[in-house]
Design a protein that fits this description.
The complex is a heterotetramer of chains A (about 130), B (about 425), C (about 575) and D (about 260). By secondary structure, chain A is an alpha/beta fold. Chain A has four helices and six strands, in the order E-H-H-E-H-E-E-E-E-H. Helix content of chain A is about 20%, strand content about 30%. In chain A, a hairpin with a 2-residue loop joins strand 3 (about 50-55) and strand 4 (about 55-65). The longest helix of chain A has 9 residues, at about 115-125. Helices cover about 5% and strands about 35% of the residues of chain D. Chain D has helices at about 25, 30-35, 50, and strands at about 1-10, 15, 40, 45, 50-55, 65-70, 75, 85-90, 105-110, 125-130, 150-155, 165-175, 185-195, 210-215, 220-230, 230, 235, 240-245, 255-260. The chains are: A alpha/beta (about 130), B alpha/beta (about 425), C alpha/beta (about 575), D mainly beta (about 260). The interface of B and D includes residues 223, 261, 322 and 336 of B. Strand 8 of chain B pairs parallel with strand 18 (about 330-335) of chain C, so a sheet runs across the interface.
């Protein structure tokens, strides 16, 4: 399904900023918030792994029903290493990348694993 | 048990200064008045695992080293670099930022803060059209209209509404909430929108069009039946609310600075606010994120003339966000070393920028483990500013406060400022061939 | 370290030294009669020697000053200063960055600078920034024009608590001087309104600008503060404002100064000396203001010269800056400060081709030439409002040379200046002694700091400016270019007995002192007033009382002026 | 006309600042003097011939001096900065700030140019045969006085925010143009033969923009009339054009946007 990707802050994520070395960090950030109707359309249920892809990459995250809906065709991923696999580095020469309003695709990927950030960084940057 | 009152919360730009922290033999027992975010930060002081000595990358992992060795390596990296990037600065105090700026100047590098990926566009807009603003106490005492646009304080600044805007009683607003109207504009029906008197759900990326419609209508022009997903009726009503209030304030967030149009969304919104002053009193305030991102821009501006993205490679400050800011410098490969203080670019920059960060020599000065410390070659843990170290921080409305020290850092940990001073001294030694 | 400055031609008005060949001796940072032992000798033969310059009104550091820099990267890019010879880098034409400002002042021979409009809530910022202004001694003037406590006590008719709260704010902000900007107008600006006359009502407080000025005047003298109230009256920059200006000054007649200095200091008088009732029939009323100041003893002013540059206007007069913005449509910053004041900023281009700007240029000079006693009219551009302080040498040259002024009148500025002002008819030329008064001696006296500053008598700070100008050889009237060049950079600037500038180059960058006043009132009264403070802070400020006062650590080299005002009870 | 050729030897590691590559600097200098001119690779001062092989002869005057750069200099900034006369040709792509504050002379780029080229240009002729980056012919940060004179022709496409705060001169883009063309424009002419992204002429208070097509017009623009084969700023255009006035988001709006049907 074609969607618009928004990234940003959440209170859950803010609460684990000092605990990035814990699983709480993955739980709070490796997620994708859906509009409930979009979940039905995609046959995705809470907790399923989904693949989000854009011109700049793809990432596997957990589907979460948005508590701040409706927002049809808009998915939300908290700012962080997972979101930034798919955000756009386009800054229009003003310093700011495109963190919001990125055209993206999302589909169910039940059997795929959501990586922790060390796994994710290792995979992306070989370090 | 020690009780610390009037503690400044070193989390977000709201910079609450009424926290009461109870400390018992080195443990934080509670942080009264703090929101979930602030509370989490104070409670994290009880975290078991914390690195107490610097670590260098070795093979697959890291190995411990001394502070002296770490300082020498960091200094050498900065001296060797043709254009080092010194990035971060938003979660430390001004006293450390000031040394960081001197260090950037000394090594001929670029110094930039997370403003460039947060409210940097707001600054660019201010530099084009200005900035009619007020302090938050003015909002508390006078405002009868609070607009939040592209900002979700319930998540990012949880006490903002209770301290300054929606709820408090003020000199001219004795009935508090009853005297105030709240309007929220966002692309999602956020939790903040949930408690608004009026909510406008904007089509993603069309904020600029909507501001343009407000301004056109304000000057008696015609607008179509719908703009940015909002009906002409709602746009007209909302504009009426703005014109007819006694004192309005627009709080805007990264929902505007990060969406298509970026600084131009703010530019246009600032002009709208300025023009509303022909009808009533209207101002705006950016919802700055980290607790001292504003302080960095203040210190860098009075010292260099420019607020972020300052390039010292030629010995004098050069400023051109889009050229001298971190994401472009990394994506274009125009920096050959990176020095991060109190920030997490590896988590918060797009993949392409992080890829270059991972390639070049790198140092992170940071209390906790983060994606950035994971990728950096050298990690120097530091004391936690605003809790273990006192110093100056500037609120989102530029009000300066002195963050308090409420506990001692673990033995062997230095403050950001001390570490930076050691590195600066070492850099000068190396340059003078000592 | 000991110093002997030999054979210089010395101008030291406070000690009645008028161009004598005289040696100046410095030991332990002070002027002395005799030297003890080994000393460095500076040969000042054929050179002009004056006390270190004192800047009494310049927006060189503080919250709105930094906001002004942030607003104008294009002004920053206009001049850059590279890091060299151990000096920090910087930038800025109309608003030089902090280190650079200190260097530039020292290079002109200035050893003290005062920043004249510090919103109390932003005092911590001001002092942090002052710490990054090297060399010069400093102080800051907290603003009281819209202070809610002051207005409350005026309404309640409680002058004692009013004085006590002023004393508290001085202590809390580490300020030296009571600054009043557009009294009451800045509070009305909270509603988008202004106060243009001294009897206008201040919304929500039922007081008038006149009451605010009188109340603070009285408090200032009861607290025995060194300087008088530092006043920027209502209605700045509007045609016909001369009436408001003189009505405001009249308020000072009734209150006696506790010392030998004025009881009212009128700042940037140029902006308050306008006639006419529109920009069309706009004209100078400098003659009227000069006549008034000549006729009384309670007023000292500074000129507020316009230097015809592209600059950045910044005042605590929010409504005035908004007015300017609507005139020019240039970018505009507003920064209302809760319970206190309302700064604003906008760029401004003073054009030689513009009749109004040309008249403003004339007014600044007229005032200096029409007011008989130079101790009553000091040199300042209200930096950067009338123009950057780096233009002082040119203003000095204008004052010393009628031909230079005539050249500007005939060739450079709009003819409107001839019609709209009397400048063309004035042939007075300042002497070197007059210049010494209007750039240092007069400032020191007006500030009440003339024991330490602005002169070269025994006991004064060892602050000396030596210029490559030979008063016996040069004719300032003819060689005005030489005067302009000579005052731009000193041969030597000496501060506290240390050589700071040699041949125009900075050779040392010590940290200057920051002066602040601490008037101690009756303890009981202070306690009573403190209860009101607590109540207002809880209810109306956005910061806690405990987090408000500026900690002493912010003053890298603080100098507290303790004042016994316990008779205020 | 005499010619100096700079053949690219080595690419800089962190970008190069080379405002010394300008006719006025080269004029009257020998090849060895020119070779020794300082250029800045980050914080390290290098010689021009560390990066370029210098041949040819410079004329006595800048007006008579032509500089030809043979190779890709897209990482080299400030070439031809402040140029007043003479000629410059880049056989390849050029870096940021090419010809910034240029007052006269001629610059030709066979390839593309990066962002921020020809900022605050006041005179001269420019021909970019490839694509131009963002902020072409714009104002520097904070300035409300942008390009004032001269002409820039781009055969390819142009990026976003070209000609911000434009006060005069002409920019002709033969291809397409990204968003915010002529934002805050005041005077002058922008001609886009191809398609312009949305927000064309945003917040313009004066001046003229002509586009072959637009993604969308802001609501601040009012359609005045349809004109067949209009003459705009003394130039003839064929076809029917919609004439808009705007941007009425600003009270001072006196700008005109022409869009081909």
């Amino acid at each position: 399904m074609n969607v618009t990707l928004i990234t940003g802050r959440t209170i859950k994520q803010g609460m684990v900023i000092e605990h990035k070395d814990s699983t709480m960090y993955t739980d709070a950030n490796a997620i994708c918030e859906f509009d409930p109707d979009d979940m039905k359309k995609l046959k995705v249920s809470e907790g399923d792994t989904v693949e989000v892809s854009s011109e700049d990459g793809e990432v596997y995250v957990r589907a979460v029903k948005s508590l701040q809906s409706p927002h049809k065709n808009i998915i939300f991923i908290p700012m962080g290493p997972w979101a930034n696999q798919v955000t756009s580095p386009e800054t229009n020469s003003v310093g700011m990348p495109s963190f919001k309003g990125v055209p993206a695709k999302v589909e169910l990927a039940k059997d795929r694993k959501v990586l922790t950030y060390p796994e994710l960084l290792k995979q992306s940057f070989g370090k | 048990m020690e009780i610390h009152t009037d503690v400044i919360c070193p989390f977000c730009g709201t910079l609450c200064d009424d926290i009461e922290v109870h400390v018992e033999n080195g443990r934080v027992m509670e942080a009264l008045n703090a929101c979930k975010l602030g509370n989490a930060k104070f409670m994290s002081m009880n975290k078991k695992h914390r690195h107490l000595v610097p670590r260098i990358r070795k093979d697959e992992g890291f190995t411990k080293t001394t502070i002296e060795d770490a300082v020498a390596r960091a200094a050498q990296m900065l001296v060797d670099a043709k254009r080092p990037l010194l990035y971060g600065w938003a979660t430390t105090v001004c006293e450390a930022q000031s040394v960081g700026i001197e260090l950037a100047e000394e090594v001929g590098g670029v110094i930039d803060s997370c403003a460039s990926v947060c409210h940097g566009p707001s600054v660019l807009a201010i530099q084009d059209v200005g900035f009619p603003s007020v302090t938050l106490g003015e909002v508390k005492n006078r405002a009868d209209l609070d607009i939040y646009w592209g900002s979700n304080p319930m998540h990012a600044h949880p006490r903002h509404m209770s301290r300054y805007s929606r709820y408090p009683r003020g000199y001219f607003r004795e009935r508090g909430q009853l005297d105030r109207t709240v309007v929220v504009l966002d692309v999602r029906k956020t939790d903040t929108a949930g408690i608004a008197d009026k909510f406008l759900q904007v089509t993603p990326g069309d904020d600029y069009e909507l501001v343009n419609a407000f301004r056109t209508l304000l000057h008696g022009g015609e607008i179509p039946d719908e703009v940015a997903g909002i009906s002409k009726k709602d746009i007209t009503e909302t504009l009426e609310i703005m014109k007819s209030c006694q004192f309005g304030v627009l709080f805007f967030g990264v929902g505007l600075t990060m969406s298509p149009g970026k600084h131009r969304n703010i530019d246009n919104a600032i002009s709208l606010v300025a023009e509303l002053n022909k009808h009533t009193k209207f101002n705006l305030i950016p919802m700055r994120g980290h607790y001292n991102v504003t302080g960095f821009s203040e210190v860098l501006t009075w010292q260099s003339g420019f607020p972020f993205g300052v390039d010292y490679t030629r010995g004098y400050p050069q400023y051109n966000p889009g050229e001298t800011t971190s994401v472009e410098l990394l994506c274009r490969g125009e920096v050959d070393a990176i020095f991060v203080v109190g920030s997490d670019p590896a988590a918060n920059f797009p993949k392409k920028a992080v890829a270059h960060l991972a390639k070049i020599p790198s140092v992170a000065i940071e209390p906790h483990e983060t994606p950035t410390t994971y990728l950096c070659d050298l990690n120097i843990p530091s004391a936690i500013a605003g809790i273990e170290v006192e110093g100056t921080a500037y609120r989102m409305d530029n009000v300066p406060l002195r963050a308090r020290k409420i506990m001692e850092p673990p033995a062997g940990l230095y403050s950001d400022r001390e570490i930076l001073e050691m590195i600066l001294e070492k850099v000068r030694e190396i340059k003078n061939g000592v | 370290m000991e110093f002997e400055i030999k054979n210089g031609i010395v101008f030291d008005p406070l000690n009645k030294v008028d161009g004598e060949r005289k040696d100046i001796l410095i030991r332990d940072g002070r002027i002395v009669e005799k030297l003890k032992g080994k000393h460095e000798t500076i040969d000042a033969a054929g050179r002009l020697v004056m006390p270190g310059g004192v800047e009494i009104h310049s927006h060189f550091a503080g919250g709105k000053e930094t906001a002004g820099r942030l607003l104008r990267p294009e002004d920053g890019a206009r001049v850059v200063y590279p890091k060299q010879n151990g000096l920090r880098s910087g930038s800025g034409y109309s608003m030089p960055s902090s280190f650079t400002a200190g260097y530039l002042y020292a290079q002109m021979g200035y050893t003290m600078c005062n920043t004249p409009a510090m919103p109390p809530l932003f005092a911590r910022h001001t002092h942090e920034e002052l710490g990054d202004v090297p060399i010069v001694d400093k102080s800051a003037y907290p603003t009281f024009d819209g202070n809610w406590f002051v207005m409350r006590y005026l309404k309640e008719g409680d002058p004692d608590k009013l004085a006590a709260c002023v004393a508290w704010f001085m202590r809390a902000t580490k300020g030296l001087v009571i600054k009043i900007v557009n009294p009451g107008g800045t509070e009305n600006w909270g509603w988008g309104k202004n106060a243009v006359g001294i009897d206008d009502n201040i919304i929500g407080f039922d007081v008038t600008p006149a009451e605010i000025v009188s109340g603070l005047l009285e408090a200032n003298e009861r607290l025995k503060l060194p300087h008088s109230i530092h006043l920027h009256p209502n209605n700045l920059g509007k045609p016909g404002n001369i009436e408001t200006t003189i009505e405001t000054l009249e308020l000072g007649k009734s209150v006696k100064s506790h010392s030998d200095r004025q009881s009212v200091y009128l700042t940037h008088a140029q902006f308050h000396s306008f006639g006419g009732d529109s920009w069309k029939n706009f004209e100078s009323k400098a003659d009227e203001l000069a006549k008034y100041i000549n006729s009384c003893d309670h007023v000292v002013c500074d000129t507020g010269n316009v230097t015809l540059d592209e600059t950045t206007t910044m005042t605590s007069d929010g409504p005035m800056e908004y007015f300017l913005h609507n005139l020019t449509h240039l970018k505009w910053v507003n920064k209302d400060v809760e319970l206190e004041t309302a700064p604003g900023i906008t760029p401004f281009i003073y054009s030689r081709k513009n009749p109004v700007h040309s008249v403003q240029w004339a007014i600044g000079l007229e005032l200096a030439l029409l007011i008989d006693d130079p101790f009553k009219v000091l040199l300042a551009t209200d930096h950067p409002n009338g123009g950057p302080f780096t233009r002082y040498p040119r203003i000095i040259a204008w004052l010393m040379s009628e031909p230079y002024r005539k050249y500007y009148m005939d060739e450079r500025v709009h003819k409107g200046a001839q019609k709209g002002s009397s400048l063309a008819t004035l042939d007075r030329e300042y002497t070197f002694s007059d210049i010494a008064v209007v750039t240092r001696a007069g400032q020191a006296k007006a500030l009440g700091l003339s024991e330490l500053k602005g002169h070269l008598g025994v006991g004064a700070h060892g602050d000396v400016a030596i210029y490559d100008i030979d008063p016996s050889a040069v004719d300032p009237s003819k060689d005005y270019k030489a005067i302009e060049k000579g005052f731009a950079k000193t041969a030597y600037t000496i501060k506290d007995g240390e050589v700071i500038v040699r041949d125009g180059a900075i050779v040392a960058t010590p940290q200057g002192r920051t002066y602040w006043a601490n008037p101690v009132v009756d303890h009981e009264l202070d306690r009573e007033m403190a209860k009101d403070l607590e109540q207002y802070f809880k209810k109306y400020y956005s910061v806690n009382l405990a987090n408000y006062p500026v900690q002493k650590t912010y003053l890298k080299r603080g100098r507290e002026i303790q004042i016994d005002a316990r008779d205020v009870k | 006309m005499k010619e100096i050729v700079l053949k690219v030897k080595e690419q800089p590691r962190v970008g190069l600042e080379a405002e010394n590559i300008a006719p006025a600097v080269f004029a009257g200098k020998s090849v060895s003097e020119i070779s020794a001119l300082p250029v800045f690779e980050g914080n390290s001062e290098r010689r021009l011939d560390d990066f370029f092989e210098v041949t040819g002869v410079a004329a006595e005057t800048s007006a008579e001096t032509r500089i030809v750069i043979d190779g890709d200099v897209s990482l080299t900034k400030r070439i031809g900065q402040g140029m007043r006369d003479g000629e410059l040709r880049v056989k390849g792509s050029a870096g940021m700030h090419l010809g910034s504050k240029m007052r006269g002379g001629k610059i030709t780029v066979d390839g593309d140019c990066e962002a921020y080229c020809f900022q605050e240009m006041r005179g001269g002729t420019v021909h970019i045969k490839g694509n131009a980056g963002n902020y072409l012919g714009s104002a520097v940060r904070g300035n409300w006085r942008g390009m004032r004179g001269g002409t820039i022709t781009v055969d390819g496409n142009a990026g976003s925010e070209i000609a911000t705060f434009m006060k005069g001169g002409k920019i002709h883009v033969k291809g397409d143009c990204a968003s915010f063309a002529g934002v805050h424009m005041n005077k002058g002419l922008i001609v886009i033969d191809g398609r312009s992204e949305r927000r064309i002429g945003a917040e313009m208070i004066g001046g003229t923009v002509v586009a072959g097509a637009v993604d969308a017009m802001l609501v601040g623009f009012t359609l005045l009339e349809n004109v067949k084969d209009p003459e705009i700023e003394g130039e003839k255009f064929t076809g029917t054009y919609k004439k808009y006035s705007g941007d009425h988001a600003d009270t001072r709006a006196k700008g005109t946007v022409w869009v081909k049907e």
